[in-house]
């Protein structure tokens, strides 16, 4: 097997990897470096959101937030067999890509309360599963209100502020609605990366759709980071390509 030299979240040309046998994946040459770099964060996190929501065949799913992680949650829900998939977002480019990854409906929060929109679209029934990939501490209340009793919410959104999470008592079934909330840190490691890479190799997942901006040279890392901070409307994800020993390496 030909091996692709690959770096994930590391802003240096050389770095040490602990437990390399368990943490470094061998990637075949048929995967482009810039596509592979999405596996170690965007893909595994987004798919984990779908896993945490316990999505089953034919489920109606809502993915709240369709940045790069949310888009991969849409793709993950689709791969797990979801039927109808609502994607909540407002940026046209992200909405278009969400449809390409398997979303069947777009819910624009600028058009009104997303819970009301979901309930209207489902004839008041709500959805089977929710993946939270964006929002804030108030987003949990929306998820609880739109989900059916006996169902699951998977959260992979980082909550950087706020002291408490809102859980509406009545819509939670006064504590007896069996509405389960799961949140967790995305798994990594060699085996998972190689399995996710197989989705690219077999043509079942195209991560190139996530890449909207490309930079050349390690000195451009700061430019890429500022782009993510400022979040222009056309941004999904940037990549930085450096050249080291005649082999392409990406950050």
Automatic annotation (TrEMBL):
Q: Keywords for this entry? A: Metal-binding, Oxidoreductase, Zinc
Q: Kindly list the cofactors needed.
A: Zn(2+)
The entry's protein name is NADP-dependent alcohol dehydrogenase, putative
Where would I find the Alcohol dehydrogenase-like C-terminal domain in this sequence? 68-169
Entry keyword annotation includes 4Fe-4S: no
Q: Name one GO molecular function term.
A: metal ion binding
The enzyme's first-digit EC class, named in words, is oxidoreductase
Checking Pfam families in the record gives: ADH_zinc_N
User: Per the similarity annotation, which family is this?
Assistant: Belongs to the zinc-containing alcohol dehydrogenase family.
| Organism classification | Eukaryota, Amoebozoa, Evosea, Archamoebae, Mastigamoebida
Checking InterPro entries in the record gives: ADH-like_C, NAD(P)-bd_dom_sf
* Enzyme Commission (EC) number: 1.1.1.2
